[in-house]
C-alpha cells in the first residue's frame, strides 16, 4: 500500500498511532501546503483500514524536526492525551548545537513571545512572555559542536530552538535562529522519545525512535551513552502498551 510505505509506524492500536516523522515535512497543513503533511498521510493510512476512520492531532513537530509524534484515532483519546500532556507525558530530544557547550547540565528558563511575523523570541520579561523551561545534558563534545539530550517541562512553540540560541549555542542548521551551518541539509533536532505515565495503573510506557544514522557516525560515544541510559532502547519492549 503506497501510503503505508511512507509512514514509519512505531506503535498502533485502536486508539493511538505513533509515527517516526522524517524531517522536511509539516505536521499539519498551512495556507501554502495542504496535502504534503504527516497528518494527511496518517489520515490516508487509517482510511485504508476503513473509509470512516479519522485521525486527530495531539501535538506537533516543526517542519525540519524529525522524530516521534502521536496521533489519536478518536476524539476521546485526543482529549485525554492533551489533558494529561504536561503532567503525565514527558518528551525527550537530541540536538546537535553549534560550539562547545561548557556547563554539563543546565535548566534554561525563557519567557517567550511571538511577533506578528510568527517569530518566537525570549522577552526576558515574565510579565509579557510565556514561561518555557528546557533542561539539557551534554552527551558528547567535538571541536565545533556538541550533542545534547534535552527534556522540556513546557511545550511552547520553538521552545528548544529559542532556549539554545539564547545561551549562544543555536541548533546546527537553524537559520531562523542565527545558525548558517548545515551539515546534513536539515535542522539537527530529533524528538527521540515519549514517556507516558499511567498513574491509574502505575505503569510507565516508553516509545522511542531510531537515531539518525549520520548522527551515530558523527557522535558515536554520545549516542552509545544515550542508548545505554535510555529507559527503552528497543520499541518492541513497549508493545504491552494499552489504552483503556
Helix content: 10-25%
Q: In this structure, how is the largest beta sheet organized?
A: 11 strands, mixed
Mean pLDDT score, rounded?
A: 87
Coarse structural class: alpha+beta
Silhouette: globular
Low-confidence stretches: 231-244
Strand content: 25-35%
Using only C-alpha atoms, the radius of gyration works out to 18 Å
Any idea of the CATH class of the domain at 89-199 and 222-230? Alpha Beta
CATH fold name of the domain at 89-199 and 222-230, please? Answer: Pseudouridine synthase
* CATH architecture term of the domain at 89-199 and 222-230: 2-Layer Sandwich
Distance between the termini: 29 Å
Number of helix segments? 7
Helix and strand succession? HEEHEEHHEEEEEHEEHH
What's the CATH superfamily of the domain at 89-199 and 222-230, by name?
Pseudouridine synthase
User: What assembly state would you assign to the polypeptide chains in this entry?
Assistant: single chain
Total DSSP E strands: 11
